Amino acid sequence: MSDWDRDWPAPAKINLFLHVIGRRTDGYHLLQTVFRFLDFGDALRCEPRSDGRILLATPLPGVPPETDLTVRAAEALRAATGATAGVTLRVEKRLPMGGGLGGGSSDAATTLLALNRLWGTGLDSAQLQRTGLALGADVPIFVHGRTSFAEGVGEHFADISLPPAWYLVLVPAVTVPTPEIFRSPQLRRDTPAIRASDWRPGFGANDLEAVACALYPEVSRHLEWLRHYGDARMSGSGACCFVEFAAEAAARAALAALPAGMRGFVAAGLDRHPLALI
Question: Could you say which of 28, 99, 199, 223 has the lowest number of CB atoms within 10 Å?
């Protein structure tokens, strides 16, 4: 099977903790977090074009195709490499918008990784990460492709090892705009920094969680239900929330017990992105 005929995975991420430790003079927040990928996400298919155009065949409602991160990623790769090839992009969306699972960033990173191979542009991981950072702070981790302690605006990584785990992820029926959370005067921005080597599973919290819960009570309601099963946390700027299980059966039993009106999924944690460059 040709690479043009395959699906390119764009997995979800969760933040096992997320601290805001400061703010730069340009307004960007300084963060510390641990990213873990999940065996669940979107999928991208690429079709070659002979006319040099970049088209999105599956636009999202309310999102002009030219502003979609997949289209912007393809254009950024061409600008960085001088490539002239065209492509039609098709995205099978499973990850919610405004969910804190990195769906748009993951799609952008997968676009970079896929087209770098399909177009033969030959960029290495560091070059693709730099190209991705201009698209969004979470894009580089998906290119980097390993479970990592991240710092800065989320682009400096120290790889870590974690034991196998399963996650029950709940998807509240709300969209949380990331800028709204970071603009809030109630957001804590002075959590003390730690060294990557000092982080341990279960450490810390999500500093964005209190703001998101205050603005979106559905997030708080889902977290309250999840906490019957353990140390539940919100991912990213929300709205999705998760709790960890050691065994798949326990995670699926909790999913089966979801109250009416709540929805979610179970996924294994991944040590590496399926497309991680070696």
Answer: 28
Question: Which residue among the candidates 42, 68, 107, 138 is catalytic per the annotation?
Answer: 138
d(CA 135, CA 20): 21
Any residues with CB less than 8 A from the CB of 7 and at least 6 apart, and which? 43, 44, 45, 92
Domains and CATH numbers, the chain: 3-159 (3.30.230.10), 166-270 (3.30.70.890)
Alpha-carbon distance of 118 to 120, in angstroms, equals 6
Q: pLDDT of 109-129, one tens digit each? A: 999 999 999 999 999 999 999
Annotated catalytic, 138?
A: yes
pLDDT digits (tens, 9 = 90+) for 13-49: 999 999 999 999 888 899 999 999 999 999 999 999 9
Active site residue 93: no
